[in-house]
Sequence to fold (226 residues):
Amino acid sequence: MTATTSTPDLLTAPLDVPSAIAQRRAIKTFKPDAIAPDLLKHLVELTVAAPSSYNIQDWRIVLVQDAAQRAALAEAAYGQQQIVQAPVTFVFAASANAGLGDLTPIYEKGLQTGAWTEGTVEYFKKAIPQGQTALGDKRREYAVKDAIIAATHLMLAAESLGLSTCPMNGWVEDQVKAVIGAAGSDDLAIALLVPVGYAEEPRQNPGRLPLSANVFVDRLDTPYVG
Ligand SMILES: Cc1cc2nc3c(=O)[nH]c(=O)nc-3n(C[C@H](O)[C@H](O)[C@H](O)COP(=O)(O)O)c2cc1C
Fold:
């Protein structure tokens, strides 16, 4: 089937954040409809507007769109068909060692926007490599945190703009790496897969526990009751 491009487009009023959070569901079946290029670009920009530790932006995001690539990615995800159906799946990978690399473009951008002074940059030039080295094996975990926050931005931005998503953790990391061209990489960790598209059918909210079950005040022995 030839994919068509669905409305809504950028002219449709976006949902406000609380409504997008309340309405979002993990969607398991998607229409084959394509996402308009402008809308996809808008989504990508909102995704990378996410915060990251020291603004390192250590996510590596691959938009898997090609039909053969989607089929291979679905195979790496135990055959989950959302990836085949949705026009694009965002693979959120994280570079564990990005913070040890050349951060000049990030410093220059911070100076250019006026957000950072020369003093801030000089401090970061020392603090970031020191901090990243001290993290050791935890660098991977820290990079994954940044990537997951970006994925959350994507899910809420997509919902707000009339699209649906499904966060996915069910995949084999080495196989996903092979599909995106990172076979054997020790630096790259796969954080989350997020198919994005137009929902074929709605899904019900499976609900949440009462707040007192897993939200606390000050210490774990005092449940939050609102
Ligand atoms: C980290 C994470 C991994 C998940 N992995 C999968 C997955 O591999 N396949 C899938 O169909 N749903 C997956 N889900 C979706 C959850 O089942 C879903 O979010 C949960 O049931 C709550 O439903 P809701 O998102 O509609 O509120 C995942 C969700 C999260 C947050």
